[in-house]
Amino acid sequence: MTDALKAGARIWLYKRPFSLGLHECLVLLDARLSGLATSLWVDGQQLATDFTPAAGEDAIRNHQLTATLPDGREIKVEAGYISWTNVGIAVRLDGTLIHESHRGRRIAFPERAARMLTQQSAAGQPAYDPDKLRRNKVPIMVDIATGLLFFVVAKLTDLKTAALVGAAVGMAIVIAQRFVKVDLIGGLALFGIVMLLISAAFAIAFEDDELIKQRSTIVGLIGATFFLADGLLLKGRRLGHGLNRYLAYTDVDERRLAIGMGLVGVLMALANYVVVKLVSTDIWLFYTTFLDVPLSIGLVLGAIKWARGGRAASPLAAL
Asked: Domain residue spans in the chain?
């Protein structure tokens, strides 16, 4: 179990304490990309452990922790998920229920989560493979870091400066890739750098307020064109493949994924165009700040579902 835990980064450590007479008890539930590990502690001493992997039939079973107290009584703890993001325990002493961390809640994987974890790809492998994210953690971290840099610089200065700084850092990463063996731009980093260069050029060339508001439309359509071309002409071998590295699934059709993301880009660009044309600048700012993000998330999840052949996609699977 120790080796399995080391293979996956920690997502969250849950603590579920309870008392048993004079005994202070604690159940630790260590959720990691590799799976879930539980341990039962009584008066600071570990008495029992259990582990389930992150995917497959065994992933959805509840954990059973059994130990014998110094006075001979038997304690049994049932532990597991009660929702997508929370866990619970039920404690029995000599068969009698004495404690529930969430009274009345059934300890069981949510039905949709269970289906996701037990699905298999056409090759007979688990369709959900969180270890895929670990194998691609470096390019994913590079993508996230460049995105955060753009956000911070934009907050401290302006969009033009942020685009220029982002483009410069992106080019530096491309140059650094020539001298290191670790994959830095294997995901969508290179595509993001190209889009930052386009955004920077747009910011420099145009200062008109209406054109600035339409930047999302223009840049979005350019990005959508790249994705559609990749899906229709290259069968998703470039952008579709790069985006697939962000998803913990093994049954994604990369051609469909590229086409789907291209269509999402087109819809988001058209939505921005319509909002700019029909409403005031204040309402447009409200839309770009609060509404387009949930809209894009919904469309992206739909594209992932289509790329997986209609299977349900969970937001947690892309983290």
From this structure: 2-118, 131-318
